[in-house]
Amino acid sequence: MNKAWIAIHLEQFDLNSMCLALNTKKSSYFSRAAINQEVRQLNRHPHYKRVEGAFYSLKKCKQMGLNGYLYRQNKTVFSRRRISHIMSSLSLIAKIRKKFKKVSLATINNP
Questions:
Q1: Which of 7, 17, 40, 99 has its CA 20 to 30 A from that of 60?
Q2: What is the pTM of this model?
Q3: Cα dihedral sign for 96, 97, 102, 104?
Q4: pLDDT at residue 4 greater than cutoff 60
Q5: What are phi and psi of 45, to 5 degrees?
């Protein structure tokens, strides 16, 4: 109830004073999904497009190389956790290359 009242009267009063008067933490106000969902989506939108574009330009192979690629292209810095979060929310899965295994005649003859 307090968080909804704060959301309605945010233009009239200061957020700090309302939280202090209602004995509510600011973090609980900002954690409310209905208020922050649109703002979060607007902030994430350009990052999602950058990561997705870099993912497909690197041919879906390098998840760890995305950070360096994005820095060289746009001068933007992302952590590996941020990149993995964006990739998981976009359902992007990096291809895992198999390790090169040297094949000799001994391994072919004795499986």
A1: 40
A2: 0.48
A3: positive
A4: yes
A5: -55, -50
